[in-house]
Amino acid sequence: MRRVKSRDTAPELAVRRILRAAGIGYRLGGAGLPGRPDLVMKGRRVAVFVHGCFWHGHDCARGSRKPKANGPYWTAKIDRNRARDETSRAALTAAGWRVITIWECGMKAEGFADRLIADVRNQAATVSASTSSD
User: Fold this and answer.
1) Could you tell me which of 47, 46, 58, 59 has the C-alpha nearest to residue 131?
2) Is the confidence at residue 74, as pLDDT, over 70?
3) Is 50 exceeded by the pLDDT of residue 9?
């Protein structure tokens, strides 16, 4: 597993390209935030996770595929990843952050880039609306 990248994966780079082209600023690696989000928009209080379907146990065809070798190990590992993801999401939400989770399989859908940009902007609008009324 040493060769498996945790940063700068192809899906993450694609998301970064889309946001950069739309003029949406972000920071990499949310050090100090629960779960270390892949992208952070601190002023907007938006955290973005880009999940690989296999590694995070998505319910799509690729995510539900189980390796034939060493099955109990992989089942336990993916279950731990899912539990950690849920804990991180809950902690960020409790701290007032908006969380966007992007699944690798969802990036192949038509109109993904437009939906991503709209989601980020809508999340930011929700945050700014809630902070301006305080």
Assistant:
1) 46
2) yes
3) yes
